[in-house]
Write a structure and sequence with these properties.
The chain is of the alpha/beta class. It has 16 helices and 18 strands. The protein has 3 domains: 47 residues; 274 residues, Zn peptidases (Aminopeptidase), CATH 3.40.630.10; 151 residues, Glucose Oxidase, domain 1.
Length: 498
């Protein structure tokens, strides 16, 4: 307790002061006064600090918060809408897989353009792009020794053929490029199989980056060692005898040899046989061929902005697919999600300040000509491209978005998480954009990639199992909600993300 003076009278009548212990109530009052004083000082400090925050940033946060009711409307409507899944079914059931150069792809594009016009979009058009035209043809892999068996195989996109008689040769199984180099003398005249598992201790796309190197560069590495053919273990996290295709890249300084993917089970079978010292021999037949480039189109449609129509938010997926399955997850689902997200805004009467442009790119899978074609056709407009969003990781439960751009842009993009959280996609964090928007992101356009639970993505990726059944309708609705909320937020927010 505090010592306070006590007033008393002396013998001569003069007051004198002597210390004594103050009552507890007085001490408590003084302590409370002290605390109130400190709170006032802290409040003053925080107010002064707040003055240091750029006014534009604070205003942006306020403007984004004001969009919350619209985000709630968008989310409720998206989660209740059964039509997008029916539209996805009509696309993939009606046209099947859609490899660049195929008649199926161009018929699908015609149908999409007609549907978009019926939806009431503005400036619906197909923008011309020339695309590579690779044809798979008949193909097979037959184990000759130590016993006869048909193997599960898909040729890699862009591979040369074997000729009509095929190739029969012994197989050399290796686990890495380094092992191939060590055993280079053994590879001459053989078919090299890279049996490289998908890393088990990695996130799906981190593991993919490791394993996919053998799909891209394996054929040329095998050719440099004198091999006559190249096989890879399918780049997958799960298999039921399901080979996965995908593109390869030939080294222009090395001869081209046929290249294909085996199922995980068949790759392991040949590996075990070799480990037992058995002579593994197979016959590979591939009638693949590359034709002349063919005409195709990027699909483009717009919801015009009410105040800044020349500023553009791009949103889309790729309309092409590999030539197996239906390409439902990769990437018809992403394309329909982007398309339906913008249609939903129009249906709700939410016309944003900026224009939102739906782009369904052609030729993502084996050339990226749609992405580069869009960049070239719109190069003069790119300074007014506010942002670009793409969905190409499959349709699964959305987690948020990856942002590719400047550090300042990332800080402002993160403000939009208060809206996407309403749609069930709460995270906006720095990361890589997607392939089709890559060419314009490289020129400074800020990019967003829909980030989903990808734990099962590489079950279906580039396989015959990529059918409508791989797409969950509830997940599709959630992805549409997330993309629609983000697109609306970007098209409404003040300032810039650059």
């Amino acid at each position: 307790m505090l010592d306070l003076p006590k007033i008393s009278a002396s013998k001569d009548g003069v007051e004198k002061r002597t210390p004594h212990r103050a009552p507890l109530i007085i001490v408590r009052q003084r302590l409370l006064s002290f605390i109130r004083l400190m709170r006032l000082r802290v409040t003053a400090v925080l107010a002064a600090a707040a003055c240091l925050v750029p006014a534009a940033h604070a205003q942006s946060n306020l403007e984004i918060a004001r969009m919350a009711p619209a985000a709630q409307r968008i989310t409720r409507a998206a989660l209740a809408d059964s039509l997008p899944y029916k539209r996805l079914a009509a696309l993939v059931d009606g046209f099947g897989h859609r490899l660049s150069g195929s008649a199926a792809l161009e018929r699908a594009i015609d149908w999409v353009l007609a549907e978009m016009r019926r939806d009431g979009f503005a400036n619906v058009r197909g923008e011309p792009v020339m695309v590579p035209h690779w044809v798979r043809g008949d193909e097979s892999a037959t184990l000759i020794t130590p016993r006869r068996a048909e193997l599960h195989l898909l040729g890699l996109g862009g591979s040369v053929g074997t000729g009509p008689m095929g190739i029969e040769a012994e197989v050399l199984v290796v686990r890495s490029f380094e092992e191939l180099e060590r055993r280079r003398a053994e590879a001459a005249g053989k078919i090299v199989l890279f049996n490289v598992p998908f890393p088990k201790d990695s996130a799906p796309f981190a593991g993919y980056d490791v394993a996919v190197r053998y799909r891209g560069a394996g054929a040329s590495a095998a050719a440099r060692a004198g091999a006559v053919g190249s096989l890879i273990r399918s780049v997958a996290t799960f298999s039921m005898q399901s080979p996965h295709t995908g593109g390869l890249r030939y080294d222009s300084t090395t001869r081209k040899i046929p290249a294909a993917a085996l199922s995980i089970e068949d790759a392991d079978l040949l590996d075990r046989m070799q480990q037992r010292g058995e002579r593994v021999r197979l016959k590979l037949v591939m009638n693949a061929k590359m034709l002349l480039d063919a005409p195709s189109r990027n699909v483009v449609a717009e919801l015009r902005g009410r105040e800044l129509p020349d500023e553009v938010v791009v949103i889309g997926g790729h309309i092409d697919s590999w030539d197996v399955g239906q390409g439902a997850m990769d990437d018809a689902g992403g394309s329909v999600a982007a398309w339906e997200a913008v249609k939903l805004l129009r249906t709700l009467g939410l016309t944003p300040r900026r224009t939102i442009r739906v782009v369904l790119w052609t030729n993502e899978e084996n050339g990226l000509r749609g992405g580069t074609g869009y960049r070239d056709a719109h190069r003069a407009e790119l300074p007014k491209h506010f942002a670009a969003i793409e969905s190409d990781n499959g349709i699964f439960n959305p987690k948020g978005f990856r942002f590719q751009g400047t550090a300042a842009g990332a800080r402002r993009a993160a403000l939009l998480a208060q809206l996407t959280r309403i749609a069930g996609a709460p995270v906006i964090a720095p990361g890589e954009g997607e392939a089709d928007v890559g060419p314009i992101l490289a020129l400074g356009v800020p990019g967003f990639a829909l980030d989903v639970d990808a734990s099962k993505y590489f079950w279906y990726h580039h396989t015959a199992a990529d059918m409508l059944n791989a797409v969950n309708e509830t997940d599709l609705r959630r992805c549409i909600a997330a993309m629609a909320v983000l697109a609306y937020g970007l098209a409404e927010m003040p300032g810039t993300l650059r």
